[in-house]
Amino acid sequence: MTGTIDQAGEAVATATRAEVCVVACAEAFRDNGEMVASAFGTIPAIGVRLARATFSPDLLISDGEAQMVRGVWPVGEPASGEVEAWTPFRTIFDLVWHGKRHVMMIPSQVDTYGNTNISAIGDYAKPKVQLLGVRGAPGNTVSHPTSYWVPRHSPRVFVSEVDMVAGVGNDRAAEAGPAAARFHDLRRVVTDLAVLDFAPDGALRLASVHPGVTVEQVREATGFPLAAEGEVPRTRLPTAEELRLIREVLDPRGLRDKEVSG
User: Fold this and answer.
1) What family name appears in the similarity comment (predicted)?
2) Which residues are paired to 83 by β-bridges?
3) Considering only 60-69, 71-80, 98-107, which range has the smallest mean pLDDT?
C-alpha cells in the first residue's frame, strides 16, 4: 500500500500497486480523442474505462461482442450503457486500417526497439512453447497506435531479441520503409514496475517507476540496457476520485489485485 496525495493536495486513501498500474494504463489513452480503445488484460480494461470516465470522454469502448456502449461498467460484467454504434467483426478491419484504434496488447516477449512476440518461444521451426500465433499484431502495429501491458516485468519478457516478430518494432518498421513506418506508432509499455516509452532513436527508455520501485530494480528485471534521461520520476498516483471510481464503479470485486499484487 502506498500513501498518496491527490492533485489538489488533499490526503486520499492508500493506493495499491494494481491501482497505480490502472492509472498508468489510463494515461496511455489521454488525449486520444474519438478512438476505439481496445485493452487486453484486467488492469488495462479498468484503465480504459477510467480514462473515459475522467479525462478522455470521447473514447469508444466495445461490449466485447459487436456494439459500442456509452458510459462505464464494472470489469467482468456485461455492458450496461446505451448502445451508440453497431460494430460487427467485419468492421473492425476498417477501423484498424484507417488508424482509428489504439490497442494495448500483452506481449510474451519485448525487445529493445519494441518488437514483440506472442507466437512461439524458442526456434520457430520447433518451438519450446507454442503461443497464440501472430494474431492481429502485425496489422495493429503498422496501422494504428499500439501500447503494451506486462503484468510481470522480468528478463524473460524483456529480451535482447525476440524469438519471433509478431508486433513490429521501431527498427524493423524503419527498415521496411514507408509502407510499414508511415502509420507505425508505438506509444507506451506499462508494467507492474514501471512505465516505459521510446527515445528518439526508437529504443525503449524508462519514463517512470511505480512507488516503492527503484530504477535499479527495473534495470535488473530487463534483459537489455534500459536508457533513462536524468532523474526518473515516480508514476502518477491516483486521485481521490479515481480511487473511488476504481474501487466502487469499475472494479468493485477487486479483480485488479489478481493481476498485480502489492
Assistant:
1) Belongs to the 3-oxoacid CoA-transferase subunit B family.
2) 69
3) 60-69
Ranking 3-12, 135-144, 245-254 by mean pLDDT, the lowest is 3-12
CB neighbourhood size of 70 (10 A): 14
CB 20, CB 237: distance < 8 Å? yes
Global confidence as pTM: 0.92
- Name which of 247, 197, 234 is nearest 50 in CA terms: 247
E strands in 10-123: 11-15, 36-39, 67-69, 83-86, 101-105, 109-110, 116-117, 120-121
Question: Which segments within 107-221 are labelled E, that is strand?
Answer: 109-110, 116-117, 120-121, 129-130, 145-150, 185-191, 194-198, 204-209
In the chain, the amino acid numbered 170 is N
Of 131, 158, 144, 148, give the one whose Cα is nearest residue 217.
158
Of 98, 123, 118, 99, whose CA–CA distance to 108 is shortest? 118
